[in-house]
Design brief:
about 0% strand; about 80% helix; elongated; mainly alpha
Length: about 180
């Protein structure tokens, strides 16, 4: 009798230990997922910073502004520089797509694509670049990416980038006139 009672207590303790172990494993999995998501976000943000840092280079900023203001005057050398720049933008978008499919990115890829199209592809050069390069993304596993980018880029105008930068200049001009008065 006493041994039955002891066995019941030992079984209860063992079951409690198993449940506690399962809870611990679940918590570890969640923590690892959170760490993975944070790492993906950091790498994703670092990729965009790297792309935007290119525009901070004075020589490249000149090429970039020329691509917006006078794209028909770009030299082959400048087109090659811009090709690498826009390839980096597309690489970031492919990373966003991969992270979305893996469940490591919140939000819809279409929303990110539209933001990217507005920020990077709202000028004649960038849109021509995409039309020339879009055929690289026609394999069955990336055709969805091509369609998303096509839709996002076609939703922008060829003058949005120029209007954005000119808007900043207008605000600065108004602000300096207001402080001078």
């Amino acid at each position: 009798m006493e041994s039955d009672r002891l066995n019941r207590w030992l079984t209860l303790a063992a079951n409690f230990g198993v449940i506690l172990g399962i809870v611990f494993v679940v918590l570890e999995i969640r923590q690892n997922r959170d760490i993975a998501m944070a790492q993906v976000r950091l790498e994703y943000a670092a990729g965009w910073r790297s792309i935007d840092e290119q525009r901070q280079d004075e020589a490249f900023a000149g090429v970039y502004s020329k691509s917006i203001l006078r794209p028909d005057e770009l030299t082959l050398r400048e087109i090659i520089q811009l090709d690498a720049y826009y390839a980096g933008v597309i690489d970031q978008m492919l990373s966003a797509q991969t992270a979305s499919k893996a469940g490591l990115r919140e939000g819809q890829l279409q929303d990110v694509a539209l933001q990217v199209a507005i920020g990077y592809f709202s000028n004649a050069y960038a849109q021509a670049w995409w039309q020339e390069n879009r055929q690289l993304w026609t394999s069955p596993n990336v055709i969805e990416f091509q369609k998303i980018m096509d839709a996002a880029i076609s939703a922008t105008s060829k003058s949005d980038n120029l209007e954005y930068f000119e808007g900043i200049q207008r605000r600065l001009t108004r602000a300096s006139k207001n402080t001078a008065n």
